[in-house]
Specification:
182 residues
Length: 182
């Protein structure tokens, strides 16, 4: 039992170190520590998500605006590696909504490589909504994925739902004005 406690504590330490290194843009050291954290606590859905988010967001243009073109071409392999860790997190805890949302963003980032990635993003964010329908951010992103795929009516409905859930009124209002004629 002490060995598993030590592994857990060491996993936490490496995860915290990874966050510190990431915050100061020391990405090689951040990656080393996040990977060690997952190796020591590989059955933690959360630790896998932290590593997945790191791979998705730390390389290239991590602009969170879901409909902007992303400068991801040099870093698509890192994003794909992140998707592998989201997959693992989902398999470890299928009821945890966030890994589906995180993976949706990663797939959307890869849409310029293969447009079918946008359909996967839409599927993943929809699954996140099924698991947690109270997160306005999920509806906001799904609205943009729908809009990019030509489902303007569905997009407008999602942005209205995001506003109802009190997620970033201004940004949703701007989307409704720009794409829905409000």
């Amino acid at each position: 039992d002490n060995i598993s406690d030590d592994h857990f504590r060491n996993s936490e330490i490496h995860s915290d170190l990874g966050l510190v290194y990431q915050a100061i843009d020391s990405l090689d050291l951040a990656e080393i520590n996040f990977v060690k954290s997952v190796k020591l606590d590989s059955l933690s859905s959360y630790k896998n998500v932290v590593l997945a988010d790191f791979y998705r967001d730390s390389f290239g243009d991590s602009d969170e605006i879901p409909y902007m073109p992303l400068a991801i071409t040099l870093f698509s392999e890192k994003v794909k590696k992140g998707i592998e860790y989201y997959d693992k997190a989902i398999s470890l805890d299928p009821g945890y909504a966030y890994p589906n949302f995180g993976r949706a963003i990663a797939y959307a980032m890869l849409r310029n490589e293969d447009e079918s990635n946008l359909y996967q993003a839409l599927e993943d964010v929809t699954k996140a909504i099924e698991l947690n329908s109270e997160r306005g951010q999920y509806y906001y992103y799904r609205g943009h994925y729908r809009n990019l795929l030509g489902d303007n009516q569905g997009a407008c409905k999602d942005w209205l739902q995001a506003i109802d859930l009190e997620y970033d009124y201004d940004v949703n209002r701007n989307s409704l004005v720009e794409y829905c004629g409000y």
